[in-house]
Amino acid sequence: MIQNYFITGTDTGVGKTHVTAALLAELRRRGLPAAGFKPIACGADGRNDARTYRKLMGNAVPLDIINPIYLRHPLAPSIAARLEGRRIDLRQIAAFYYVLASDFSPVLVEGAGGLLVPIKRNYFVADLARQLDLPVIIVARLGLGTLNHTLLTVRQAQAMKLRIAGVILNDTTGRRGLAERTNLTAIPKLTGVPLLGVMPHGDRGKAAAVRAIAYRLRGKR
Length: 221
Prior knowledge:
By secondary structure, this protein is α/β, with parallel strands linked by helices.
């Protein structure tokens, strides 16, 4: 049985939603009552991500439960909330998570950006993962530059005593040069955490990759 996970990224635009949606679709295909949860969405694209999860769940849950906090500006939540005169209610986020977790399993929670994206003053995305007491899946780019970003994210997660399920490398370009090939072995060696899989660029091989990732997650506790 796959447990609930918190999915974060090494940066914005690394493919957290792409990976989360693919995993959600695979779990639903297997007959599991899986759910996607995007507690905070900033900008129209973020709200559309929540709509994607709702559609994959058969539109069985209101959008405002899947995404309780929606901010119009595509900025860090704390900044967007200040500009819009909004208050981010952490209790509401937790309450809606437990509503979903009572009816669905597993629940895939997608964070906003990376672990140190500020949600409120002195409260970051990593704090939300810790509050919900969820193991973390880190989505990183496959290509050049990912070693630094991934190591920083892993070390921050470890510093905050978060459980790390592993890393998923997302191929955002389709290029498989020397950096891409060596990162496959360098990431688990340098970070000390498992490589759960690689999401390919485009649809070719995607189904098999997602099945393999879901299989590996089944053994994580």
